[in-house]
Amino acid sequence: MTASIRKLLIATAHLDIWVAPEWFAERLRNRFPQFEVVRLASVDELDLEIADAEIVMTVTLRPEQLRAAKKLRWIHSSAAAIHQLLFPELVNSDVLLTNGRDVHGPAVAEQTIGMIFALAKRIPQAVRFQQQRFWGQQVIWNEYSGPQELAGLIVGVIGLGAIGRDVARHAASLGMKVVGVREHADLPKPDFVEQVLPSSRLNEMLAIADYVVVAAPVTSATREMIGREQLAAMKSTAYLINVSRGVLVNEAALIEALRENRIAGAGLDVFQKEPLPADSPLWDLENVLITPHTAGMNAKMWELQYELFSDNIRRYLNGERLRALVDKKAGY
């Protein structure tokens, strides 16, 4: 009698840049011959293939698909964000959930520091002047308060997971003081963070920070955690940087604060609606630096994803604890 076939299903995304390449599946077939590895070019085909899958790599799943997946034991999200997967049936099930935070976190942290540098050195203004062939030295000095030196400034980091800890490490190496905010402030303080405050004291951090970095996961408690009250608590010279998800910031309140110069500016990689609509006021605000949700991208990201996923398959087969395991009830 032959052993029953074990199925590993890869259905990562609609957009080409997020679709696992052919070599990814081929390497898995060669390394783990006990699995039938099925690679889909679109999540639209997930319904047809999930019923007998034991392991699924995907960024999206519906409750009816979970119910149909009788053999499912583990889901790996190639993305860092997993809020879209945390519906009650999955949260309350025995299905393991891992994510790509270790793949994307370092890249997001680097982009965060890049945004801080760009805003501090008035690079967005200089680029606009370059496009106009205008020597804007005096204007940058007079109207934009001149470039800043980062050493000695305070960066407030909301969320001290993989991204937040890397941001703290980079910022501290630049001589910045790092103040973190997280739900469980009683946990051991991460390296490079001078002070950790509970979420209930968020406004205290906002009142002293020169740069506020939103790097928290999406949960019921963090949606629109930055609203009018929080923006009003920030210094008029401070910048907001969001590299997590757009739903963590009240976009209308942010636009209002930016228009009225109640904060100095913002660096935004994520938005409430993506792609950012062409008629969004954010496009025209000179104190906003926009990147099109590229912070987590990395030329090596599929190599890194393969290293993480294949190592976790090995761990799964050996009954070991998986890397980047998500606490489904906590939401991260």
Features:
single chain; 332 residues; alpha/beta; Rossmann fold; seven-stranded parallel beta sheet; five-stranded parallel beta sheet; elongated
Describe this entry's structure for a reader:
By secondary structure, the protein is an alpha/beta fold. The chain folds into 2 domains: 6-102 and 298-318, 3-Layer(aba) Sandwich (Rossmann fold), CATH 3.40.50; 105-290, 3-Layer(aba) Sandwich (Rossmann fold), CATH 3.40.50. The protein is built from 12 helices and 12 strands. Strands 8-7-6-9-10-11-12 form a 7-stranded parallel beta sheet, sandwiched between helices. Strand 10 (239-242), helix 11 (251-259) and strand 11 form a beta-alpha-beta unit. Helix 5 (101-120) runs parallel beside helix 8 (162-173). It is elongated, with a radius of gyration of 22 Å. The model has no long low-confidence stretch (mean pLDDT 96).
Principal-axes geometry comes out as: elongated
Query: Kindly state the mean pLDDT as a whole number?
Result: 96
Which percent range describes the beta-strand content? 15-25%
Describe the biggest sheet? 7 strands, parallel
The CATH architecture of the largest domain is 3-Layer(aba) Sandwich
What's the CATH topology label of the largest domain? Rossmann fold
Number of helices, where a helix is a run of at least 4 consecutive DSSP H or I residues:
12
Structural class: alpha/beta
